[in-house]
Amino acid sequence: MSIHFADAFNQLIRERRLDRAILMDTLTQGFASAVRRKYGPTAEVRIEDDGHGSIELFLVKNVVDAVEDPSVQISVVDAQEYAEGAEAGDAIEINLPFEEFGRNAIQVTKQILMQKIREFERDRVFEEYKDRVNEIVSGSVQQIDRTGILVNLGSAEAFMPKKDQIRRERYQQGSSIRAVVMKVDKEAKGPMITLSRTSAEFLKALFIQEVPEIYEGLIEIKSIAREAGGRSKIAVYSRDDRVDAVGACVGMKGSRVQAVVNELSGERIDIVPWSDDVQTFVSRALSPAKITQVRPDIETKTVTVVVEEDQLSLAIGKEGQNVRLASRLTGWQIELVSSRELEQRQRLQEHLLMPIEEMVGVSDKMAEKLREAGINTVQKLIKTPAETLLTIPGFGERTVEKLMETAQGTVKELEKALEELIRKENEDREEKKRQEKPLFDESMLEAETEEPKKETKKLTAAQLFRDPAEVEEEAPAESAPSESAATESAPEAVVETPAEASAEPGAESNPDPQDTKD
């Protein structure tokens, strides 16, 4: 074999971590296919590998006296050209130079070899990752398209679909990325490893990495409810009374939970202590809202949560996120009502209780038997199991079936009437509030009180230019008010020009000498 071919062969084994025996078997199949194309469909091929990169290809033929199949038989005379002393019944090997094979034959061998290598790599990747489901892996972004991201994990390729990406995150080719292994499918056409950053398992795996107590089994993650990129709730339980489950997950100054939040691009995380008591667990799951009362219904697995009016919006959360996550975390369907609404509904329900004898299709005799069985209202009838009704004398299957069908229709009508009463009562209350409270502050429209104009005393030119000595002599004669009063009541002085002063009767004038000369 060519030295270049041997080097490439050995390099392929090292880089792809292939099994040499499997690769040799693949080469044998490929070259056998090429030899059969040239020497016949039944030709036998043997490949000899010395383990040091030297590979030889031989065509195996049986020596016979009369050749019937040239693909596997050779005459004695022809055989002696390759092996001296060859006789009939012997098997000889004819060395085949690779140069004898045409381009097409080599191409067929290459295709078979590459197909086998891909199968071998998929088997290797499957064996390596099949036990790593729900485990975090790191890689680099290799390719981005509208369907998802192709991630290079080093020894394998993985795919993260669009739905498993956090919406607010933006990825670039070559950037590092962490995700959890969701599935390893050997039959997948593309990459068999599927990754996710939006699953609850990714959040759980991050806490396992950050909180040693969870990794060691002292703290157990009971349930997780997550809306990737927005908010998540996680319920934890401590198997050791000395370990605080919530405190351990939060860490010193919030260091542990903050590391998880940073990995999830700022996603909010609520850590809730788990409890086997439904009322306690639901109350904790709806935090930070304060719960007044919890009423679970085990049959329908529904819980009615009563909160004060000012806590209702907090319990619901933005776009219903808080109650939705709490419902998924606890596994119970949560119905939130305010204490006022509950009182209103109970009051109106009592008002709409229908006696059993008023229901359509119930005769006086049937009503009497139902009352004897403790069923006085239609609402009570609808909650009674059919097996209990069958025990009443004179009630057969058809009667019970028809009775329950009528009761269901009646209750639906009563519920519609209840909702209508609630709606009308709420509208009346809102209307009353609007009437009690003005739409705007009417005081804003009141005219501002105008300040009285101060009396203005005009000074004439004669008064303005009086001798200061005369003013001092007149001052004692006048009553002198206090300094503060004088300041407050002093009239505003207006100085007039000499021309204006002369226009007033009785005013003294001091004409300019220049004017007199003129």
Q: What number of structural domains do the residues give?
A: 5
Output the CATH homologous superfamily of the largest domain.
NusA, N-terminal domain
Anisotropy-based shape: elongated
Q: How many individual helices?
A: 21
Uncertain runs are: 477-518
Strand order of the largest sheet: 5-6-7-9-8
Question: What summary fits the major beta sheet?
Answer: 5 strands, mixed, barrel
Q: In percent, how much strand structure appears in the residues?
A: 15-25%
CATH class of the largest domain: Alpha Beta
Q: Per CATH, which architecture of the largest domain?
A: 2-Layer Sandwich
Structural class, by secondary structure, is alpha/beta
Radius of gyration: 50 Å
Enter the CATH topology name of the largest domain.
N Utilization Substance Protein A, Chain:P, domain 4
Report how far apart the termini are: 141 Å
How many β-strand runs? 17
Helix content: 40-55%
Q: What's the rounded overall pLDDT mean?
A: 78
